[in-house]
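This part of the workshop introduces the protein records we will be handling. To make this concrete, we reproduce a full record directly below.
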Amino acid sequence: MAGSYPIVRMELWINGEKAGVSEKPVNSFLFPFEGIDVTRHGQVEAVGFDEQGRETAKDVLYTVGEPSRLKLTLHTSPKGFLADGADIAYLDVEILDQEGRLCPLCDCRIDFETEGEAAFLGGYNSGRFNGFGRQDSVIHQTYVFAECGNNRVFLRSTFRPGKVTVKAQAAGLPAETISWESAAVERLPISIELPNVRYEDYTETVPERKDAFPAIPQADALKYTAPDQDYCKILIQGQEPDNRGVPSVNKNGSVWGSVLVILERMLPSWKDLFRYEFDRDAGRLTVWSGDHVMVAEAGKTHLLVNGEENLMDGAPYVTERGAFVMEVNALIPYINRTTCRYDDRVHVLRIDLSDSEK
């Protein structure tokens, strides 16, 4: 469970019975409850308490029932739905159970019929498109599919004011209908009437910054753990590669990180300047670049460059997930046309491609 800054203790209740208490957050806001099955039918409730034992937050999750009905909700501007041939209204459509709760696993097709002074524009479904052997786009169609139990469709007004009626239907559910009136609007070639939008008014004075809540020293002492290492970033031509869960660390000026990820990210721009192989079983990395052959091996504190030993600030190692971690700034400078420097101001190791040959 996740708890915000003021929460220092959290209780978990399942179907009205206390299932556990967590008093030591992980990463400042995650309260773990291990070995508890929360997939049972019914109600799961989390209750958060502050350092004085007061209940400060509560959230409840319910197991929803089977889809029972549709619900349509109309949205227009504050001026209403204007009959100017351009105004847009949209409808939220939801699939609910008997208790009126959204059915998040429902992805059924929903068909629409429109009568009156509006043109039905349709909606959108992610991942459905026309092309590449598929013809299942819902754009400008009279139907959409529910996503997580809901979706949204749009309508455009006509030039005549009057009643608009939309009926939504889904297999196995009763049809749902909604009606509203579009409002007459004066249409002139030149008009002082502002568009059908609302802009925020500027205040006469600059707003003062106010913290959402005051600092709580007790919560800071409990939830914040100072980092035990000097974590930093590695940027390759200004871009940070995905470190695959291995944070880069500055150890006395030596930056350690997942070097295979870094080499792979360098390849598109450096493809003619180096190549590498990694023997996972032996934990051995070999890099070729120009006249240099570099070999780094797990458990050995030296980097071999053309057979000569160069002492590193520790031995490389292979993580459980197969990442090869080593002193990055010991290896990278041997790759042709590569600059590698550490920026103390922002704790960043910058790897860039130089225009000059080594």
